[in-house]
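User: I'm writing a tutorial on reading structure tokens. Could you give me a worked example: one chain, its sequence, then its tokens, then a sentence or two explaining what the tokens reveal?
Assistant: Sure. Here is the example chain.
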Amino acid sequence: MEVGDLIRRTRAGDREAFVELTRMYQKKVFVLTYSFFRNKEDALDLVQETFLRLYEKLGTYEDGRNFEAWLLHIAKNLCIDQYRRSRSRRHDQVADTRVEDLPIADERAGRGERASEVKDILARCVDQLAERQKTIFLMRHVNEMGNDEIAEVLNISTGTVKSLHFKAIRNLRALMSPYLGCQT
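And here are its predicted structure tokens:
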């Protein structure tokens, strides 16, 4: 069924239409929310909140707009709100972690173990990026969204997306270099 029809039916009170809308987009919303927090429970809570907010705000959706981008924008805003609430707590945890305490693999360790540790280091470094850089990096590399799609969701220009993505990559290289023993 077409999204526009589901929206119209949901606005008219059809619960099955809303359930179908939820089914169509819940995975994408979950990927976005999970990419922010990397915690299944937090992500699921935000998915639920996103669809609750969708139900409340569906009357403000303008027909003809990209519905998926509009929905992901709602999810992103909820993630940012949650991130801001927990930011100081996470910032303190990251600041308290010394490089010596990171689980860098012994060269004799298996590749799978090393890859897992690199992912952990990357996750810690991504958390240290500026909010907009982090959002764009995650949307691009976790959600596999294109620059134009990200620009539409965030309501910024494609050039700004490219610039912020470039800065995110540059900052990640600098943040990761001490952990990985390489030079920037």
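What the tokens reveal: The chain has two domains: 1-86, 97-184. Residues 97-184 form a domain with the Arc Repressor Mutant, subunit A fold (CATH 1.10.10.10).
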